[in-house]
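subagent[fold] <- orchestrator: predict structure for attached chain, return tokens only, no commentary.
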Amino acid sequence: MIVAPVLAVLAAFVSSALAAPAGCGAARFQSGMYGPSNQVSVAVTIPAKPGQTVTGTIVDLATCAPFSGSPAIVTVKGGVLDADTDWSDPESAMSGTTVNNANTVSFVAEVPNGSQHLTTDISAAFTGGTLANFNYVFQNVGVMYTLE
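subagent[fold] -> orchestrator:
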């Protein structure tokens, strides 16, 4: 089936084409996919350091207001991965927070094994796993975040 490679190429193209910062200072989503579980899933990497609190809100890029349009938000997640993991125990290398049916998430950038090399992201899932919804989210929705 050629769907997965096409989606990967499409996501990479959209990601590179829309990587510029949004006018309101929100970060644009950098990667994503559509279709699985009839959802659009997108993510952006956040430059957090170990121990920092990351707070992110999914926003409308035109207004910088919390996003409340369509497609509707299903989940917002904050995730941290130990970049030095050997993947022998992937669960011990990850931590995160999930918020259902809301547009803000807050979490501390640390993993259980105390690594100092983290990859931190905020991701969101939206209803309706169609190409039109995927394109809409990439063009019109982003993340305002703070690091403390």
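orchestrator: received. Logging for downstream: The chain has one domain: 3-147. The helical segments are 3-17, 131-140.
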